[in-house]
Design a protein that fits this description.
Blueprint lengths: L11 E7 L4 H17 L3 E7 L8 H13 L3 H10 L1 H7 L2 H9 L4 H10 L3 H13 L7 E4 L2 E4 L7 H16 L2
Parallel strand pairs: 1-2
Antiparallel strand pairs: 1-3, 3-4
Helix pairs in contact: 2-3, 2-6, 5-6
Length: 174
């Protein structure tokens, strides 16, 4: 008996190297929302961590984002923290716990995760991979093997990402 159901091609992957104390990354959220609305589940948007040394709370924020992912609220948490990048700079890790509480997440578990470092390996691996492929700032996008640097200007980036995504989806028959 043959299977006549249509094959569901794998989604195209867009990796975004991001840092949660970076206001350029906050500016990129409009593009992320537009891409998500346009492509739905045909485009898998993955946050990759690239904490910058100049932002002293970015490494903790990356770990907190991973805890939010585990608790099922990754992107809402990421967007909420980016919206408060300046406050994070001023008040530090307390902001990360406040955001978790405001989103109804287990804030105590965030506190413990930041102390026990359970997400450090993920953050370190993302950062190492980013360095290996030439990421130097945030946001940086990688789609279909092409790296697009959004740190200098977001101008025209979404259109370039859409062009690559359209080509990859057409090649996959999606």
């Amino acid at each position: 008996m043959s299977d006549t159901s249509p094959a569901h091609p794998e989604p195209v992957v867009l990796d975004i190297w991001c840092e949660l104390q970076c206001t350029d990354c906050r500016g990129a959220l409009d593009d992320v929302r537009a891409l998500r609305a346009r492509y739905g589940d045909r485009l898998e948007i993955r946050l990759r961590h690239f904490p910058l040394e100049k932002h002293k709370h970015s490494f903790a924020a990356a770990q907190a984002a991973e805890e939010a992912m585990e608790q099922g609220q990754g992107w809402p948490y990421i967007e909420a923290v980016l919206a408060r990048a300046e406050e994070l700079d001023r008040r530090g890790e307390a902001v990360l716990i406040d955001v978790a509480r405001e989103l109804g997440l287990d804030a105590e578990e965030f506190d413990v995760a930041l102390i026990d470092g359970r997400h450090i390996l993920i953050v370190d691996a993302d950062q190492a991979e980013g360095k290996a492929i030439g990421v130097t700032g945030t946001p940086t996008y990688v789609i279909g093997g092409e790296r697009l640097d959004g740190g200098k200007s977001q101008e025209g980036l979404r259109e370039r990402i859409e062009g690559i995504a359209n080509r990859l989806l057409a090649d996959a028959g999606a």
